[in-house]
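FW: tagging you since you asked about this chain on Friday. Here's the raw sequence from the shared folder, copied in full. Didn't touch anything.
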Amino acid sequence: MPTDPVLVVHGGAWAIPDDMVDGHLHGVRNAIAAGWRVLESGGAALDAVEESVVIMEDDEIFDAGRGSFLNRDGKVQLDALIMDGATLRAGGVGCVERLRNPVRAARKILSESSHVYFVGAGAEQFAVEHGSELCRNEDLVIAREVERLREYQQKAAESPAKDGNDLFAPTISHDTVGAVALDRTGNIAAATSTGGTLSKAPGRLGDSSLIGCGCYADNLSAAVSTTGWGEPIMKLVLAKWTADRVAAGNLPEWAAQEAMNYLQQRLHGHGGIIVLNAQGQFGISHNTPRMAWAFKTIKKEEAGVERSAP
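HL: got it, structure written out here
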């Protein structure tokens, strides 16, 4: 029996400044529109999450693709993962510097490789061999982020933090993007893409592209995408933890809220999460000042930055 499609996206959980709120709302709405076109025409959840994430990678307001936060050396390094809930196939890339849309490369890995994960130059080589074009890293760098990095590094030099965790404060960054979808055939999928943390060490991987950490999908439990401080999320394997709660019979809305509580209580972590099961029930939660999110069903469409969805 055909199911009604559902699409949920996020554009990062952090202290989104007032002057960036409209840009985030515009961006997540555009992402919903792109993914919904796929679902509305009977397309696969996997295609829908890919198209939604591509829109946000191309939007400079987000920390994904062009416009991402710069690492300590002033470069953009990108990570992404996409996962199919029907087959548990997944594709991920890490630390790529010359791909405009890392989620496209991740999708190629899922579809055309027996492997799950490629990093650095090997990921870029795989992408080229499967039809992608490379860009210059400079093409991904924008003036706003050059200035943001300069200001941060100047402040850090003037008053170094004792524990280094100021780098992960919700006022600094975490604008990772993601999407989860349910299609008319009853399959779910998830995708997450990020430029990582401001002034991160070169080669650092966050949670976004790691299976079960920042992204997970299984028709028998849930599709999940996270955003926020990557290290605590990785340590808790938070996306899989949340999916397991749904598999145990909990509603996605409850599981999303519990995941944020668990992140805070266990490791003092912060972030946001979107969760969707194969019955079309979903949850959106965050423990940061703001989170950019949007969802669309047959009956309703909504977007916001201030609160979890009802």
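FW: The domain at 6-304 is CATH 3.60.20.30 (Glutamine Phosphoribosylpyrophosphate, subunit 1, domain 1).
HL: agreed, and The CA atoms of residues 180 and 190 lie 4 Å apart.
FW: great, closing this out.
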